[in-house]
Amino acid sequence: MTASPTNTQQADRATEAWDIDQSAQLYGINAWGADYFSISPQGEVQVRVAFGDHTVTVPLMEIVQGMHDRGLHMPAILRIRNLLDHRIELLNTSFSRAIDAGGYQSPYRGVYPIKVNQQCHVVEEIADYGQAYHHGFEAGSKAELIIAMSQLRDSEGLIICNGYKDAEFIELGLYAVQMGIPCFFVVETLSELPIIIERSRALNIEPLLGVRIKTTVAVDGYWSQDSGDRSIFGLSTASLMRLVDTLRQADMLHCLRLLHCHLGSQIPNIRNVRSGVLEACRFYAGLAQEGAPMGYLDLGGGLAVDYEGVRTNSTHSMNYRLDEYCVNIVESIRETLDPLEIEHPVIITESGRATVAYSSMLLFNILNVSSSSPAAPTSAPPQDCPDALKNLFELQQHVSTQNFQECYNDALFYRDELRELFHHGQATLRERALAENVCVSILHHIAALLPDLPRVPPELQNLPEQLSDIYYGNFSLFQSLPDIWAIDQLFPIMPIHRLGEAPGRTAILADLTCDCDGKIDRFSSLEGERNTLQLHELRTGEEYYLGVFLVGAYQETLGDLHNLFGDTNVVNVAIQADGSFEFAREFHGDSIADVLSYVEYEPKRLQEDFRLVAEKAVRAGKISVAQRSQIVQAFRESLHGYTYFEKY
Description:
648 residues; alpha/beta; 10-stranded mixed beta sheet; 40% helix; globular
């Protein structure tokens, strides 16, 4: 964990010369941005889109202004359609290059796992743009299978059916096969096989079968338990042999065409990928030698996103490039299968995170700041005040690198002593406030000395974080960024403007929810994870905007209704080759009536219930009839308002 600068140091920095290159280094945008984001000469984050031989840049602030002009206020999800298209293109062309360079004899077929982001406009764009590459879908439920069957645009695109499958699920997939759609049932448990056999015979439709196996290769990262003998998905080797025997007895072994091996999720270490592919190939070869025709090898997900931009094998990063990932897969398959004279299978990956993460960002404004900076204290303590307060005033005059530890201990001692006096009625409220302010001033002074010390005592290492500001953002962590709360996910976070100025404060972020977990106090940086974020002072009458980037995977569909904050506004923007942009789609976020209906309240009934409450107040003489009309109208308008903070 890298130590954060103090607000005193930040204030000193703000008076120094500053440029956009320093902001780029501070926030790491050139590292995690993957050439999609940069900082303009005007100090604004801009999105970069390549069009043939030239690149177009559009400042996010211009898009934000366009949103406001259309009545779409903060917070909002901004999707850049071009980035989603480019990720699909990049994944497919990278595998094509690796296949051509390695002399591989079968193609690549990507499938998008719908669970990663099920939003209609995301899936539709993947279907439309992906058809040129025969890009398909992975479905893990009946609802997702219905989406895949209705949206797949290309007859060569695959549908991979994972998860538990009942008879209705299987019938839908069989009908897809009957219509010429290559739809594979991946057998996850042996209990599914009798249902597949029975339904396929009843409908007289031969299924396309795959089987998921457990691997023993342990992967790095948060989802390391996805693999290994205790993985909750896939068949053991013994169960795999029972499946082969059952299919042979049913005269259906020829239907087994695919091996599925989920290497892991967000795999940061390329060595894990190579080891997992090598093991999967041994299973594939074994099934081919058992007489199954095979032909497809599905390696599942795992392609990581470098949220930190540090290119390491830490959980939120990755130590490889996409080209390296593709080459390792192609080489590993060839190394295993060529000596056995087994034909090269079609390579399938289910890269969801790496496909959609870059295209979406959460934008929000800062509403308020709780500053840690002490108020300017008086030069001397009041007459007749407690000795503890006098001692604090004396102490603040003598803090140095020689006695900082003693001053730290004494400051806390005298502050606590005065608090105890206050509890017993022997110190006034004003004296307590003054003592705490002087103590904070002493702690800030000590924190400013820490970078110059050869060794920082353990009890002081977190002092800068304890003295940081709290910036209150207009968003709900639980609705828009649930992985930060649930699995300690790191996302790149930074201001989207004023980047030509030195950030003068260190802070953590708090959301609108009345929950102690509704905060962000872990941030990525090129020097390591930090507990604070460097931000600018707020200006009166001027909005301050932050962006949370790479949030396209999982965040929109995992969010909940904590405090009944609903879906945010959503904007889909398409950037044109001439540098202009269009609002291809816009979706207004949930109203209060919407979210109340989600938890079984009927808005019309609520209005009537409240009308009766207001009428009762009229009869009691508490309000007039005219006031009742005004109050009921305000209630009605609020029902149809945005669930987030709205500025008049």
